[in-house]
UniProtKB/TrEMBL annotation:
This is Sulfatase. It comes from Croceitalea dokdonensis DOKDO 023. Its cofactor is Ca(2+). Residues 37-344 form the Sulfatase N-terminal domain. GO terms for molecular function: arylsulfatase activity; metal ion binding. Keywords: Calcium, Hydrolase, Metal-binding, Signal. Belongs to the sulfatase family. The lineage of its organism: Bacteria, Pseudomonadati, Bacteroidota, Flavobacteriia, Flavobacteriales. InterPro entries: Alkaline_phosphatase_core_sf, Sulfatase, Sulfatase_N.
Amino acid sequence: MRTYTIGCAILIFLLNFCACKESPKEKESVKTQQKLPNIVFILSDDQAWTDYGFMGHEVIKTPNLDKLASEGLTFDRGYVPTSLCSPSLASIITGVYPRRHMVLGNDRVLPGDDKSVKPSWRSSWRPKNYDTVIKHFNTLQTLPKLLKEKGYLSFQTGKWWLGNYKNGGFDYGMTHGDPERGGRHGDYGLEIGRQGMDTLYNYIDLALEKKKPFFMWYAPFLPHSPHTPPDSLLQKYLPKAPTEYVAKYWAMCEWFDQTCGQLMDYIEEKGETENTLFVYVCDNGWVQNLDNATYNKNSKRSPYDYGLRTPIMYKWKGKIMPFRDTVNLTSSLDMVPTVLNLLDMDIPAGMDGIDILDKEALNNREAIFGEIYAHDFNTLEGSLFYRMAMTNPYKLILPDAENQPDETVKLYHIFKDPTEQQNLAEERPEIVARLKQMIQEDWKEK
């Protein structure tokens, strides 16, 4: 009797084991049935890397981004490849340097164009000149185009320089890009954040109604000028700021943070937080002048860290371990490859970034690069101002000999000298030579 009982138990165990063991096809079936994460890119506009609570600013309050930083994988030493919005945004969505996507500046100027006209009248010649730029851009892969393979719905809100949102592969968007109706860098899309979040909420609702994963491009015109914050925020910062101009800018930073909180709260209300990947970056930096509404020359459009450096954050609750990385250098070019690898998708040949979750690739990275062109550009060679190489711990700024003949080579120890005050180029010529060679080799590749 005892032998029979043991034999039955063994038989039952074997039957259960065989029933639970999956064939390779069954494993793949289970994998493909897993719910795909929503993906939200949050992009601030004209904000210095120092101007967040979690980055140590003593006055500016950014509680929502502070929370995102604490709950995600946060890189203190992130960079965008160029410090101007149009080329920077194009690099974020494509994962390639400006020299490959050819959106070199905000406006393209051809011989004979009247560059003295006021920006509000540039629509008379900009669309025609930018047409070839958009046609080339449309030959490239973008994240929304790639995500169609997985059934994603993609939504554009905020800044978008490349005409209609469809030029980026988005399914829906706010930017029409019609020059006859003021289309240049976002048009209707620029209302998001500043005039409420309803359109964005409606897009999220649409995706949930269709039971589709979504990709959201949230690139509001914040804290970008004009600095017109709510009065309650302005009054909060006026007593703390050295001038009213600074107070307005600080208030704009908190206003942007508030909209980020509204976006994340809405996703939480919909029960989608655990199934959403949030990625944060700033398109380029900004240092507010004390005595006028413009920016300091060492920030936006410059090759310095106040123009290029930005925190970059990745948060996917339960999937990406929270960690504050203060050492490794990362780039906005890494955002697309990282997303694709998380979705087990192939990374197209020619992309310039890496999967930052691949620790070996991150640790083996020797440098990341940057390039600055004229705001009003023509050809690549005729518009190039600077090339940069960022390493641990040195950064090289290499001016173009033809277009910036009065500029000198600059080398900074960006860990000891984060505000780039001491040029070490003459003291360390061997490092200058090595980083210059790295820049030249990178430009020869692909």
